[in-house]
Amino acid sequence: MEQSLEIFNRVVNELLADEAKNPVAEYIPADKLHTRLDLKLQKEGLNADALETVLKDIIFATPRTGTSAFFNQLFGGRNDKAILGDLLAVILNNSMATYKVAGPQIIVEKTVLRELCNMIGWDENSDGTLAPGGSMTNFMGMLMARDAFNATTRHQGVHQRMTVYTSVESHYSTPKNAAFSGIGRDNVRKIPTDDNGRMDNTLLREAIVADIANGLHPILINCTAGTTVLAAFDDLVGASEIAKEFNIWLHVDGAYCGSVIFSEKYKHLIAGVENVDSFTLNAHKMMGTPLSCSLIVVKDKKHLHDSFSNDATYLYQTDHDDLNLGKTSIQCGRRNDALKLWVLWKSLGTNGMKAIVEQEFALADAGRAYVQSHPDYTDYSVDDTVAVCFNYKGIPAEDICTQLYEHSELLVGYGSFREDTFIRLVTINSGNEIDDILQFFKTLEAFVDQNAELFS
Predict the structure, then answer these.
(1) 305-332: string of b/e by CB count within 10 Å (b at 16+)?
(2) How confident is the model at residue 229 (pLDDT cuts 50, 70, 90)?
(3) How many Å apart are CA 349 and CA 66, to the nearest integer?
């Protein structure tokens, strides 16, 4: 172990030093990887020195998600305290299924979930769990909605035509999850949005009324707190009134931006969250923990037990069910993803968590102000979000993003809303400063000016 930790420390220290000079890794086309890197597996093992060399080559060629030049996905940056928690979780290697094998780590997870429920405004009857990502926590929300509508479904299977409702701008996991749960992709109603990317609740209600009139069974409204492209927030107050009127489960996919709950300044974006049935957030997004750290909490914990509990005498041998988390999880043996969030929260306090969120909004505000003040830019952004959406000099967004990537300048993606496609700059790295955002634009502008032939 000591030798492996020494290798780890050397490779990481060299990587961090190189990142300071080269925030974007050299682009290697996929068809060249096997000639550039030793990726093959051979009969005989390598000695420590050879292994370290191979590892360093691979690590240095891997896209650098922790630097000030990474804006491509809905995560980025590094928080050293969260990394500390994750490294300790790897060394401990507990399964979070039972108290017998995880001990205090069970209470670590339950403490994080309890505090999140308290922040929502729920009582002691609420609870939650963790899963590998937002797609999985959204799936769990859909399963609980299905089973809450008809308790026989988990035993007899789906035998009614159920329908679910979500924004056209919502995450692509919703139709996948409908297929997995037996509801079916064709029974997902994708509701149009308003001009700011929020689900149109008037059209939502009309769709529900029409389905009921046709003998269908609405079971789930899926709202989004931070749509993938515009980072828009659906109106939870309006959606909760509709859910209550028709007795439909209301789930909030806050994987991207649900962490606004930590900020009194921005918590208004999820006003009404206390009235929903289930709520998710990904701490590996706004809060900057290492991947993955996805939480789902439910207003009434009985739904976790009803949908996911199964007896296994070989496994659950000690302590109360509340401490055997495998009974309220979609998985049995799962890694400890709560410790990194607990260490981060413990080290910063709730005020420090608030500062992370508010820094990300401040970065986005600075980016939007820059775009709006320069005539070469076209702004497509929505205010009060952590996404800066724009085009530059009328050049197709796909072309700029691809060339920046292939020339190892910046990693940034593009998205579409209605008929427009644009560059999507995500300010999800709270370790960045406003100067880093301004440097992004300077780098983009210089690259386009110096490589005009690529865009002609």
Answers:
(1) ebbbeeeeeebbeeeeeebbbbbbbbbe
(2) very high
(3) 23
Helix (H) or strand (E) segment spanning residue 17? helix 2-21
Asked if CATH classification 3.40.50.720 holds for the domain at 84-343, the reply, yes or no, is no
Of 394, 382, 373, the C-alpha closest to 424 is 382
277-332 pLDDT, tens digit each: 999 999 999 999 999 999 999 999 999 999 998 765 555 556 567 888 988 999 88
Q: Which residue has the tokens 């976790």?
A: 304
H helices of 263-337, in order, are 302-308
Answer yes or no: pTM beyond 0.90: yes
pLDDT in tens, 1-16: 999 999 999 999 999 9
Residue 184: burial class (beta carbons within 10 Å; 0-12, 13-18, 19+):
middle
Domain ranges of the chain: 2-64, 84-343
CB–CB of 208/246 below 8 Å? Answer: yes
